[in-house]
Write a structure and sequence with these properties.
The chain has 484 residues and is α/β, with parallel strands linked by helices. The protein has 2 domains: 27-206 and 324-459, Aminopeptidase, CATH 3.40.630.10; 209-320, Alpha-Beta Plaits, CATH 3.30.70. Helices cover 38% and strands 18% of the residues. The protein is built from 13 helices and 14 strands. Strands 1-2-6-3-7-14 form a 6-stranded mixed sheet, sandwiched between helices. A 4-stranded antiparallel sheet has the order 10-11-9-12. A two-stranded antiparallel ribbon has the order 4-5. A hairpin with an 8-residue loop joins strand 1 (78-81) and strand 2. Helix 1 (27-54) runs antiparallel to helix 3 (135-156), helix 2 (62-74) packs parallel to helix 3 (135-156) and helix 5 packs across helix 6. The longest helix is centred in the N-terminal third of the chain and has 28 residues, at 27-54. It starts with 26 loop residues before the first helix and ends with a helix.
């Protein structure tokens, strides 16, 4: 997933006028919510660092999910676990009566291949994964925002429903797609989310649609020296496919992203491998185009199998829409972010940041952590399953500075900072922004109506939601090779 704070490709903005709407929260309400979050920061930190240590990959986040569920239950939320065919997915609800439904998204999966100590130098630690996208902070801060908003609702007799979605496997597993496909978000008046980053902003951007899956080749095993003529190498099929797809890169739209890893290349050089697997992602700003490109990738796989005397099957793992901005909600979130005093860093934290930055390539652009100007429609070359949510529910997100300025996501530097007080301070900023925004929306029917009208205008009158995953069940074992 990722944020508009990252490098941008192009502008795909839709002209949508944002009317003058209800003003911000009363100052007394605002201060009460911020004070609640400040008091509960130790709980947020405890949860965030526990999930950082668990470092559980997609659909295997058993401890992480259970911890967040336990925290929400203790705060008075009703929790339904194992929703939409995903054992680690959950919905936590606090309902006081008829009124708006405000949703908050929470993530908690880690990335395979990035185990790293919370130190400013490369130091791998035992394990298979690390929070290189900061989802440990994402989940903990979203939960804290929900708890603070619930306390405010109780104090003021606010009618409506606050709902937190525990969404697993964002990194490739498309967890939120299954929530949307099951209709579990269709009655939400507004959905809020955030993401760790190296800066602060609440601009509303776009992302790339994405289809991913595994190509499994099957051949014939044989002794690679004594009887190579008896074998048919599944790895040859993978390599032939990869070569053909790499030649495709010259002949696809320039916004396209195609990347892969060989997840199974055989077990011993002297055995002709009878199975091999390669895992592909295809991305493009347009859902139709990404589907067309993936069909070409499938044809390359079929050709590779034909040429190597093997067979191939495709197992789709993920499929996500691009991200649809909602400026009506975005401006509300941006104003609430701008109203905050951003956290400062201690001398020790600043030394950590400086040492991390010394590991970046020369010429890396580093901001100062301030809140950038509001923009709309800029395209990030990453993808997120929030995209499907944004096409079916008015949705707005933000980023908070949880890493050293200049830090690339999915890096050991991001893992390191996500396990420190630097990451926690950014998560607190996110929790405050989301709670303030949620509370304001509960009292602003005009904003919610305008946000819905904007969604309908942007997606078009004839829009009908059809998941890029079709009716496929969640690939609950898609990270299995990362464990083995």
């Amino acid at each position: 997933m990722k944020s508009v704070a990252w490098s941008l490709l192009s502008l795909l903005a839709v002209s949508v006028s944002v009317p003058a709407l209800a003003g911000p929260l009363a100052e007394s309400d605002r201060m009460a919510i911020l004070a609640d979050i400040d008091r509960d920061t130790p709980s947020l930190e405890k949860n965030a660092l526990a999930i950082w240590n668990y470092a559980e990959v997609g659909f295997q986040e058993t401890k992480s999910s259970a911890l967040l569920q336990k925290t929400l239950k203790a705060a008075g939320f009703a929790v339904k676990a194992g929703v939409a065919g995903m054992p680690t997915a959950f919905i936590a609800s606090f309902k006081t009566g008829d009124g708006p439904v405000i949703g908050i998204l929470a993530e908690f999966d880690a990335l395979p291949g990035l185990p790293q100590a919370a130190e400013p130098e490369r130091k791998p630690i035992p394990g298979i994964a690390g929070h290189g996208c900061g989802h440990n902070l994402f989940g903990a801060a979203s939960v804290e925002a929900a708890i603070a908003t619930k306390k405010w609702m109780v104090a003021h007799g606010i009618k409506g429903e606050l709902r937190l979605y525990g969404a697993p496997a964002e990194e490739g597993g498309s967890g939120k797609v299954f929530l949307v496909r099951e209709g579990l978000t269709k009655d939400v008046s507004a959905m809020l989310h955030w993401h760790p980053a190296d800066g602060n902003n609440a601009s509303q951007g776009r992302a790339l649609a994405n289809i991913s899956g595994k190509f499994r080749f099957h051949g014939i095993a044989a002794h690679a020296a004594a009887a190579p003529d008896r074998g048919r190498s599944a790895l040859d099929g993978v390599e032939a496919m990869d070569n053909m797809v790499n030649m495709m890169r010259e002949h696809v739209p320039q916004e396209t992203r195609i990347h892969y890893v060989i997840t199974d290349g055989g077990k011993a050089p002297n055995v002709v491998p009878d199975t091999a697997e390669v895992y592909y992602y295809v991305r493009h700003p347009d859902q139709k185009v990404v589907s067309e490109i993936m069909e070409r990738v499938k044809k390359a796989a079929e050709g590779a199998a034909l040429g190597t005397g093997t067979t191939v099957e495709f197992d789709q793992v993920g499929g996500t829409f691009d991200l649809l901005p909602n400026d009506t909600l975005g401006h509300v979130m941006y104003d609430n972010l701008k109203s905050l005093t951003l956290p400062s860093h201690t001398a020790e934290e600043q030394a950590f940041i400086s040492k991390i930055q010394s590991t970046f390539p020369k010429g890396t652009r580093m901001g100062d952590g301030s809140i950038g100007p509001y923009t709309s429609g800029q395209v990030s070359p990453a993808s997120t399953d929030v995209g499907d949510v944004s096409y079916t529910t008015p949705t707005a997100g933000m980023v908070a500075a949880t890493w050293a300025p200049g830090t690339p996501p999915h890096s050991w530097q991001a893992v390191a900072a996500s396990g420190t007080s630097i990451g926690v301070k950014g998560a607190v900023t996110a929790a405050k922004t989301i709670a303030l925004t949620a509370a304001q929306l509960f009292q602003s029917p005009d904003i919610l109506a305008a946000a819905k009208a904007e969604l309908e205008k942007r997606r078009g009158a004839d829009f009908v939601y059809r998941s890029l995953l079709g009716d496929k069940a969640p690939s609950l074992d898609y990270r299995k090779s990362a464990k083995d």
